[in-house]
Known about the structure:
By secondary structure, this protein is an all-beta fold. The protein has strands at residues 21-29, 41-48, 54-59, 66-71, 76-81, 86-91, 109-112, 115-122, 126-132, 137-145, 148-159, 174-175. Strands 7-8-9-10-11-1-2-3-4-5-6-12 form a twelve-stranded mixed beta sheet, with no helix packed on it.
Amino acid sequence: MSTPNVFGPRIVSGLVIAKPFWAKFETKRQSATWLGFGRRSFRGLIARDKEGRVRTEFGPGKKIVGIAIADPVARKLFILDPRRRTYKEFKFEPPPVAGIIPQPTDAEVREVEGVLCFRLSVPGMIEEAWISPDLQHVVAESSLDGGKRFTWRMFEIKVGDPPADLFRVPSAYRPA
Length: 176
């Protein structure tokens, strides 16, 4: 079985524009250590603006150890190290604009974390995913990988454009 996306859901939809939001997230994996951090869970922030820029902050507990900013407008990817206040800049070829994640006609629908979602399952890959048509994003997901449970969920979801400075490298950061 494939390895889950480390800090996000396995179901991804490509470049999404005009569907801005920001939310906290939590991911858990049932294992002794994960990614060398000796932790089973990570928390962070995910934000997407109306232009499709995405910022992901992640770390164990409340400590942020990494930040990624994908900017399809500037065609750049920035990886920020908050501990060293440094960043690396890469050329970024954005994925194609995503189509709408289709909602099956017989899908169960319910509110998850304050957002209306439909349930999707992909045999052999995803036990359960709750997808928001309004956000075109997974709100919660659960899967098994090699007998280990993997969960991902967003919470404290805010619909609308996040602050613009989230998508810029802070002036105090220098190139790595």
